[in-house]
User: What shape does this take?
Amino acid sequence: MSIKHGDAILDGIGFRMGDKYSEIAPLSKASLVGQLSINEWNGHSKPQLIIEDMKVDEWQLFDYRGENDPVRRLNLFSHQEMDVILFRKESEGLIKQIPSNWYVHRFQEVNISNLELHNKNVVFLDLPESKEQFKQILGLARPSRVYLCFYHEKDHFFEMMPTREHFKWFYAFIYKRKLFDLNRHAGDLAKHKGWTKEAVHFICQVFFDLDFVKINNGVVTLVDSPAKKDLTESVTYRQQVEQSEMENELYYSSYEEVKAWIDQNMPETNLVEIY
Assistant: This one.
């Protein structure tokens, strides 16, 4: 490795320490102890540090977002004890192959305040349902290592998010037709407008939340003289917006951005990992 301090750069080498490579995360700052020597090769002489020991003075982030099989990658660390956080019930199948020395904490079932995560290795196996859930865990303690998987099957960020113009057009469309059969014609309408079928159902559900329409066996009809309400008053609409924003901020952000976000939401405690 190359060791940098200010503008000075020194070559370093550690024999029989190759297993440490996978245990030092990108951008982590490490301090090293060793013996100075001279590396002579092909007529050239350079100073060199023979590394004997090293430490990381900060928490580390290992980023496995986007992995199709995050557990397989994590099994590289099966010799370590891990505390696994599982946010969603539909992610239960992910834990079938985890090592026996890992401890699974299901967010919906545990008493959050009793979790002991200080200086631990913590795996966030799936994507939380909200940023607040993630903040609750991060606010408990400062882990030694965070393994970020955030596995999820459905991307809200890349789904079509209807604009207000889409909602206005659809309301006028129902007003003109008097009724609309979701089960029979949602796909046809989506194809005609260049939307997705899910977007059509989403708009109808938002209107239902706001008491703009009635839905009976998939048939959508308007409510007479509905009260004026903003789209943000719909629970369905807010959840979609929040999910999309969360995925953008936590899942599709860069390594540097998500590390800074996590760091801002953890208590300030110094940690040292000695190898």
